[in-house]
Amino acid sequence: MKSVKEIKAFVSERSIDEYDQIIACLSSDARKAIQTLCLQLARQKSAHEQECERMQRMYHYENELKSKGIKLIAGMDEVGRGPLIGPVVAAAVILDDKTDYFGINDSKKLTAEKRNYFYDKIIQNAVGYGIGMASHDEIDEINILNATKLAMIRAVKALNNSVSPDFLLIDALKIDDIPIRQLNIVKGDEKSASIAAASIVAKVTRDDLMQTIHEAYPNYGFNTNMGYGTDLHYEGLRKYGMTPFHRKSFLKNFK
């Protein structure tokens, strides 16, 4: 009989596809540590199967469109509609079919480490990606909704590798000024891998920008609140006033 340590070392080298067989072999081992290990493996296998099912759903819209002969599908999303400072940032991403994006999700549901992991993978492997912004001044001039649409238009125009999408999957919004077939999906960043990818690219881009602004104006906590109206942010506004990057239209009633 192998020791618990030896069994755990063996299991650590096995793939999740082998877990059912391992659990069956270990089920007769009465040692508490081994039974606990079996329970852990069963939970991990179940969680993996649920994630596989979620990933199938994440490609539902893309697969349906591709079955109709539509090849270049761009997911679109934006970040930064709610903050008091900085631009709204949009991204358009056409995912490739060869890269494994297993685990991709709405950027808000990922850790910063996971977002950066997927960001690098998307930038390196996507068929194309584009980033568009609308500044704080443009937000003040044309309002946040119109500025968001402007950023999205710019993201499509900025798609690299000279690619032009055949279809757009857009999180919630409809963009009338883009002459490309499109589908707006409520909570699309939770339902489409392409939109989730766009949300990741947009968020990492904007978070990096807010880090840069934080270095110039360190008294507002932009490195942690990303420009949202936290207590620290409002405290900074009371003490130091608005920076050149604040959205004046968002702070009309601030005292």
Automatic annotation (TrEMBL):
Ligand binding (a divalent metal cation): D77, E78, D171
Molecular function (Gene Ontology), one example: RNA-DNA hybrid ribonuclease activity
Domain RNase H type-2 positions: 71-255
Enzyme Commission numbers on file: 3.1.26.4
Cofactor(s) of this protein: Mn(2+); Mg(2+)
Matches recorded under InterPro entries: RNase_HII (IPR022898), RNase_HII/HIII (IPR001352), RNase_HII/HIII_dom (IPR024567), RNaseH-like_sf (IPR012337), RNaseH_sf (IPR036397)
Range of residues in the leader sequence: none
Keywords: Cytoplasm, Endonuclease, Hydrolase, Manganese, Metal-binding, Nuclease
UniProt cross-references to Pfam families, sorted A to Z: RNase_HII
Record's subcellular location: Cytoplasm
Catalytic activity: Endonucleolytic cleavage to 5'-phosphomonoester
UniProt superkingdom: Bacteria
Cofactor annotation comment: Manganese or magnesium. Binds 1 divalent metal ion per monomer in the absence of substrate. May bind a second metal ion after substrate binding.
PANTHER family for this protein: RIBONUCLEASE H2 SUBUNIT A, RIBONUCLEASE HII
Family assignment from sequence similarity: Belongs to the RNase HII family.
Functional summary from the UniProt entry: Endonuclease that specifically degrades the RNA of RNA-DNA hybrids.
HAMAP family reported for this sequence: RNase_HII_B
Protein name, UniProt field: Ribonuclease HII
Species of the source: Fusibacter ferrireducens
